[in-house]
Design brief:
The protein has 389 residues and is of the alpha/beta class. It is built from eleven helices and 17 strands. Helix content is 35%, strand content 19%.
């Protein structure tokens, strides 16, 4: 495969051919329990019947049109999404990085309109992750994502330490355009933010004239047990970015605006050729009709609580912490165990996992994962962890 596709992902030598729910099969017929869901993308799992029907139906009607026009499916999706999230306007893209690029551009223009050339700085958090484009890499608060080979990086970003009240003393001033943060830091290690600190940070940013933006590419669309993680965090951001699960596997991203950010963008400010196409929006409608249901979200919370509780109950000496919310779960391991080694062994035994930060094994299973699949996956995970004890 490496001879055909550049292996910039460091992909494993496994080729999958089909899936159903939270289970997948490779070319050799081997079965795997999926605790990754396409890195949080396949929120409805694999071969979800309603999704398959909606995509097939839309493909027979229309897949893409120019954004010079509207599609009936796109308008319906936008209306439902804005109603569910209580935002005023939406920009659609094709990925989380694109959604975050839109947010960054909006913040810069907001700063220009509300303070001139000096108000252009975007404040982000240490251990954050915002994407792989040059601007979103710079916004990312992890040095390992800033290698010299990609320099020079864009200017206008400032990083502060999360959950540190002292970091807020001089974090914001009349040069600050926005505070940009993940409600839970996914790639950084499934790190939870202190709600009191978040409130203090948001208040400080707004007092300085800045807006608050939440990167919910990974935490949004029900992943943490509410449609938006910023809702339970109580931050009420002016901007939220979404992607991953928003269209259950069809590429899509979104940047939502309200309040002071609602009318910043005008015609020509930001565009994307494929964005908001009817095919992606048809998939998005199925997601909204499914994931926004309170009973569905309750199940996500209960399943996540069960999985974290189960892992903690094993009392394994190499497990230092089990954290997360909803079906966004991180197991922090003792420094003598490398998460990647655990990931490899899990894969060998038929469990797909991933890593986060420097010492965390991360689970982002489909939100529709069955109790049976949870038990099968946890059984494999326990056996692998025990092998390292």
């Amino acid at each position: 495969m490496e001879k055909l596709v550049v292996n910039n992902y460091g992909s494993f030598d496994v080729t999958f051919v089909k899936g159903k729910g939270a289970t997948m099969w490779d070319v050799n017929g081997k079965k795997y329990i999926d605790f990754i869901a396409g890195i949080g993308v396949n929120c409805l799992g694999h071969s979800y019947k309603t999704l398959v029907k909606a995509i097939s139906r839309q493909a027979s009607r229309q897949i893409h049109i120019s954004n010079y026009f509207f599609s009936d499916t796109g308008l319906e999706f936008a209306q439902k999404l804005l109603k569910i999230t209580n935002f005023q306007h939406a920009y659609f893209g094709n990925s989380g990085a694109e959604a975050n690029e839109a947010a960054i551009k909006l913040a810069r223009k907001y700063g220009q309109l509300n303070g001139g050339d000096k108000r252009k700085t975007i404040v982000t958090l240490e251990s954050s992750f915002h994407g792989r484009t040059l601007a979103t890499l710079t916004a990312t608060g992890q040095d390992k994502f800033h290698p010299d080979c990609f320099a020079p990086y864009p200017q206008g970003f400032k990083t502060i330490k999360a959950n540190d009240f002292d970091s807020l003393k001089d974090a914001f001033d009349d040069t600050t355009a926005a505070l940009f943060m993940e409600p839970i830091q996914g790639e950084g290690g499934v790190n939870l933010l202190n709600p009191e600190w978040v409130k203090a940070a948001a208040d400080s940013a707004r007092a300085a004239g800045a807006i608050v933006m939440c990167d919910e590419v990974q935490t949004g669309v029900g992943r943490t047990g509410s449609f938006l993680a910023s809702d339970w965090l109580g931050v009420n951001p002016e901007v939220v970015t979404l992607a991953k699960g928003i269209a259950a596997g069809v590429p899509m991203g979104a940047c939502l605006f309200r309040g002071k950010a609602a009318d910043v963008f005008v015609a020509g400010d930001h565009q994307s050729t494929f964005a908001g196409n009817p095919l992606a929006c048809s998939a998005g409608l199925v997601v909204l009709d499914t994931v926004a249901d309170p009973e569905f979200l309750d199940r996500v919370n209960h399943a996540g609580d069960y999985m974290r509780g189960k892992i903690s109950s094993w009392n394994l000496p190499i497990v230092k912490d089990v954290r997360g919310k909803g079906l966004m779960i991180g197991t922090q391991l003792d420094s003598k165990v490398k998460p990647f080694d655990v990931e490899v062994k899990c894969l060998e035994k038929g469990l797909c996992t991933t890593t986060a930060g420097t010492d965390v094994v991360r689970f982002l299973p489909p939100l529709v994962i069955s109790n049976k699949e949870i038990e099968e996956g946890l059984e494999i995970y326990k056996s692998v962890l025990e092998s390292f004890c």
